[in-house]
């Protein structure tokens, strides 16, 4: 055993010593080559152990010597000949043999190797089988790994779907909070006026407590009317602060109401975006017309469209588009301006590029004709799938008009997908304009709703509202902008900046009688393709997990940066002055802080 | 330009909406009404085939004259799917008829859409009785077809008159 170290350095060291020893003729009476030269014989065991072993192998242990021989695959030649004779070398001789160990054959010594210690039972016969076994094993491992990869991919998909959901939820919550902010601003404004009034009359009046939400409708002189319900008389401003906190608690509740399992629940519409997304990742193989015909209306109307958590949503007031009103408006309009040339050029600085996504040929033709009459460049897509394909292939539009219920891919799902990489304004064109429908459109990233059946005027209004950056100012005919317009903001011409301009120009109080379009809020949204500087900053503030999400191979360009969800502190900061009122150059700084302090991504990371 | 207000569409057509389409006709072209005409008759063809699709769904209901058991099984499995499809078809036709101002057709199609969603005709309340929904859809399809026939007649008259004048 003590030779093991030496032998491991040169595997044939022991064998060479053995050979050398046998070459010494002076030992021939003790140990010598066998008669045939293919074995060696220890004739005098005792002498060999005492005198020769110590000389050559530095020990005097015959058993050890035999073990060593066995390790090198020498075998003792058995003496039990059939004729009962003793060995030819004498009764006490030990004869050892190895196929490669022969007298006068030094070259073959190198072939004698120490056996592998462990698999002693497996003879040389198994050596040939080993590679095949190994290959089998490797194959199995590869199959197992492939399965693991599949599992990982599946879970990756799931995570991505979850991520999208979270992003959506964050955007929605963002809107909720902003709506709350607006309400609070109103309350504060009103309370300030009440407070001033009260101070003037302080000697005569008790501290009044009518500041609930309905109180905003009361005139200052009717202060005491609503006071009965409030148990604690507080100064109006204190009460307002209490109100704010309540609102903030509401947002918190929304937050905890997040359901991470939400993509697994339900079916239909909700699953739509997720599954649609997976098809995006395989490149949206285009369907030919034949397939399109087979797949008429797989979306099944709006049956599956169940707006979730609508109880948490702010009420988005919108007018039911009265058809009578439209009709009368039209009549008057037509009475005044019967010539269509009045519509012909709404005064664009260039022709707006519109993508019209509509499966119904009648609506599509009429819509395209109307758009054409407004000097728009029109591209059409027959369903959401085609629309997504076009946008993915890099087609740039100033605005997308999107039908909701379409075969193959409905408008909401299409919008949801497009929103992963593009911020072009998307307007839902639909007759499904129940409040929860509309909330759902906004949740999935739509910017506005054009109720069907649209009229030329409603269509033009929508164009002018969202393409205000393309308007020549002052225009020949005054556009009816639904929001206050800051003329200095409207002279930009580059497409991506339109949204920012719009939101900058949008006055928070200017939404009288129109939808509370989320475009108003985009001022605080980190989604700003026109501001490339902002993006890296945003990234730096986020966790590695989010980076991975960002750089996942399916979304090579960029994911949709989640809208930050302002916490209580920020909410109050925001409340002081809406972001719309800030100077343009201050807004990025503000966003950074918001996203850095409490951005969506850390949340998302936690989800993963 | 011939004025749609001078032609009596009755309450079948919302004139203001329809005139928007007429206004899109380019009066300078040879075929002055090509655009609106192609839209209108395109719609009429489309509506015709949509009604046909609706009818095939409707007839899935059990009919004693054919093998009752087999039909019943088929029917139970298909009923829900049929309702959804009818709703989709109703929705589809509703959109285009509304855009053209074909009010009566639109109203019936809207009802079909709602019945197909197992709701009442306004879409406000649920109507869980599928059999009733299918029956109501049958009635609405009949009404929609009547309205459609009327619109078709009127449109053919109207364009004949327009082209006669031209």
UniProtKB/TrEMBL annotation, chain A:
Primary residence: nucleus
Modified residues (4-aspartylphosphate): 403
Molecular function as annotated in GO: kinase activity
Biased composition (Polar residues): 207-225, 487-496
Pfam family, one: HSF_DNA-bind
UniProt keyword Transcription regulation, yes or no: yes
Record keywords, A-Z: DNA-binding, Kinase, Nucleus, Phosphoprotein, Transcription, Transcription regulation, Transferase, Two-component regulatory system
Database matches in SMART domains: HSF, REC
Alphabetized SUPFAM superfamilies for the sequence: CheY-like, Winged helix' DNA-binding domain
Compositionally biased region (Low complexity): 503-514
Cited InterPro entries: CheY-like_superfamily, HSF_DNA-bd, Sig_transdc_resp-reg_receiver, Sig_transdc_resp-reg_Skn7, WH-like_DNA-bd_sf, WH_DNA-bd_sf
Region (Disordered): 206-229, 257-282, 475-521, 564-608
The Response regulatory domain, residue ranges: 353-467
Lineage: superkingdom: Eukaryota
Subcellular location: Nucleus
PROSITE patterns: HSF_DOMAIN, RESPONSE_REGULATORY
Name used for this protein in its record: Transcription factor
From TrEMBL, chain B:
Modified residues (Phosphohistidine): 91
Highest taxon of source: Eukaryota
Keyword Phosphoprotein on entry: yes
HPt domain segment(s): 32-151
Keyword annotations of the record: Phosphoprotein
The protein's name in its UniProt record: Phosphorelay intermediate protein
Organism of provenance: Lithohypha guttulata
